[in-house]
């Protein structure tokens, strides 16, 4: 396969950072760059296609495809962003009661719809107490006793997320920064799921348990998608949901009935609870390991009503309402972690007022990334609106796609970060409190996940899921 090359020094001049800059979680030290060393290059497979378009197709693309003239960062970003939208559309394709996909029924044609990815295996059903084997693919979610018999047909099972001991039992919000509270004072909820390719590999290699990982005794290396063979690679989905107190709000959200579960805690004292609530999707993060991106392609989407940007706040260009921002509040502190104690069964009250997160987007995307997302969001909205002008799917937007500019070989189990572009990328619902461009602190999907390891301390191939093994 021929590869086109773009000077990496030019790429990072556009990005406004150095090629060795760090982002995300705790970082590996970069190799020092000598002034007389020739610039590194960005590699992009040449698929020979005259152009890359967003399409209504129920098949998740096994890899990104590239146009014939991909010789600039802007063109490559366009193609990766197109891949992200095609993945979003395919992953959200409607499924029937039998779980089958009808190619003639694109998203939104008959109103809101249960999606392909919602039938994937949740992490809560993979990493079980005592390292027990997970149930077979397609089995109902594994539920705690208090939730038994309450799951609505096709419903979700959502628990509070984070790393706070005794309260939050999902690792979506990095760095233990705390919950996300909507404008009704309710906690956002999250879930992580994997596709069948990734699930089968975890089960076959017994990576779901500590004992299995010890017996495996090697770094993880998940399967890559391949556009030549059509083979699907490993895919992870992280979804963020908010309660919809007014059922009328469902007209703007992809929604689902869900069991919202809170485990018991001693300190702080929290009562175990499990209730059925109508939830609206506010964030969707998709990671896909592919032949052109062994460090995975990271696509992040949000509901258009989530938050304003810092620039919009400064200019006073605000909508009348947001999911996680109050435009009428003049003294609310932006991006403030909610005060403790955190009890999802209760609303947080401060000085007699219900606490509500005041989140703004710290937008550090370079202009070319902003332009790429803006243009493709308009194209996708027109395409989905053509199916149904009232489609809930027209209310979601791509924030950006992060991809390795110097991709590795899928056959290699341990890789460097591949110099991701853009350097920093945050979803306001999933990396709420680590937005920005502070090296070693701010969110960067690839660089953060490059530090992920199994319980054996061996590399887990850009996923933190395997550290949950018991």
From TrEMBL:
* Residues making up the signal peptide according to the UniProt record: 1-23
Q: Where is this region: Disordered?
A: 24-49
Keyword Signal on this protein? yes
Q: Which UniProt keywords apply?
A: Signal
User: Which PROSITE patterns does the record associate with it?
Assistant: PROKAR_LIPOPROTEIN
Indicate what this protein is called per its UniProt record.
Cytochrome c family protein
Q: Which organism is it from?
A: Corallococcus praedator
